[in-house]
Specification:
One of its GO terms (cellular component) is outer membrane-bounded periplasmic space. This protein has helices spanning about 1-25, 40-55, 75-80, 115-120, 125, 175-180, 195-200, 210-215, 240-245, 250-285, 295-310, 310-315, 315-325; strands spanning about 25-30, 60-65, 85, 135-145, 150, 165-170, 185-190, 205-210, 225, 230-240, 290. By secondary structure, it is an alpha/beta fold. The protein is globular. It binds (2S)-2-hydroxybutanedioic acid.
């Protein structure tokens, strides 16, 4: 009996560290480039809260904002290497992985964020979440930020005013073509470098959402903002397919649900708070905010229309049509 008891204790003491190891939580790193107060920042925090509540002791989510862990240019590689598990790059930053997502950069394609939402929810939009599966990337969902506006050092109302100005752009060939269409000089720069580039005069302007402009203080180093809503900055929340599929089924299910809810939360923030961020920029009284008149909008639309034609073959005419239809 004694021997059996000793054997049991011995087995237990060996088994204990092993089972403790098996139960140690899975660490999930969620890295992004914007501030905590933005829709993406808030959605990432919400995901942490929901995932840890749904899977207590099983997962720990670490959120890294402000390009702290990885910035543009490094985060996709880090995801492939397993150094980060969840990232949410802007849809403008997937050009190297799939030409299809370039659709979101086409100027004046979507009238507003509601149209973007309808397109993303449509079968065409949903199918794009799987457009990078062969590259080992799984799309967990779309996340809104909002419509873009232009900020510049010098006044800019009509497309002719943009001629010769240098603009920071995200890493997107469509955005490059968009600025070239009005005779401007686009320059691809990581998000973390934008403030410095504007402040030092490396570039004269940029395009972004109100939440990014306000939280990164771009309006403090710019003279003018043209409220153009000429395009969208939204995200795809993505993960490493191999890592995701290798998770225990109950954990993957819990994380999927937490992601779905965190995206719904972030989307609400995006839609509700865009105007509030704009109001804060105006209240700061640093850059002059100019509304775009219908006549000016028509001129910009006309000047940038060739960009849609230029990328039609790469993106697909049917997909563009589906996106246009989401405006109704
Ligand atoms: C940008 O680079 O301007 C944006 O994509 C940043 C972001 O993640 O919203």
């Amino acid at each position: 009996i004694l021997a059996a008891a000793i054997a049991t204790i011995a087995a237990a003491s060996i088994a204990l560290p092993l089972s403790a190891a098996a139960q140690s939580p899975i660490i999930i790193k969620y890295s992004h480039v914007v501030a905590d107060q933005t829709p993406k920042g808030q959605a990432a925090q919400k995901f942490k809260e929901l995932a840890e509540k749904a899977l207590p002791g099983k997962v720990v989510v670490q959120v890294f904002p402000n390009s702290q862990l990885f910035g543009d240019g490094k985060e996709m590689e880090a995801l492939a290497l397993g150094d980060v598990q969840i990232i949410a790059p802007s849809l403008s930053k997937f050009g190297k992985y799939t030409p299809k997502l370039q659709i979101f950069d086409l100027p004046f394609l979507f009238n507003d964020i509601q149209a973007v939402d309808r397109f993303q929810a449509s079968p065409s939009g949903q199918s794009l979440l799987n457009s990078m599966n062969k590259k080992g990337i799984t799309g967990l969902g779309y996340l809104h930020n909002g419509m873009k506006v232009f900020s510049t050092t010098a006044p800019m109302n009509l497309p002719a005013d943009a001629k010769g100005m240098k603009f920071r752009i995200q890493a997107s060939d469509v955005l490059e073509a968009q600025f070239k269409a009005v005779g401007a000089n686009p320059q691809k720069l990581a998000f973390a470098e934008v403030y410095q580039a504007l402040q030092s005069g490396v570039v004269d302007g940029q395009e972004n959402t109100w939440s990014n402009i306000y939280s990164k203080k771009f309006h403090e180093v710019q003279g003018f903002i043209l409220d153009s809503n000429h395009g969208v900055i939204d995200y795809m929340v993505i993960t490493n397919t191999k890592w995701w599929n290798g998770l225990p089924a109950d954990i993957r299910k819990g994380l999927s649900q937490a992601m779905k809810e965190s995206i719904a939360f972030g989307n609400q923030v995006a839609i509700k708070e865009a105007e509030a961020f704009k109001a804060k920029v105006i209240a700061d009284n640093k850059a002059k905010v100019v509304e775009m008149t219908p006549a000016s909008k028509a001129a910009w639309r006309k000047a940038m229309a060739p960009v849609v034609k230029k990328f039609e073959d790469e993106i697909g005419a049917d997909l563009i049509k589906a996106a246009q239809n989401s405006n109704q």
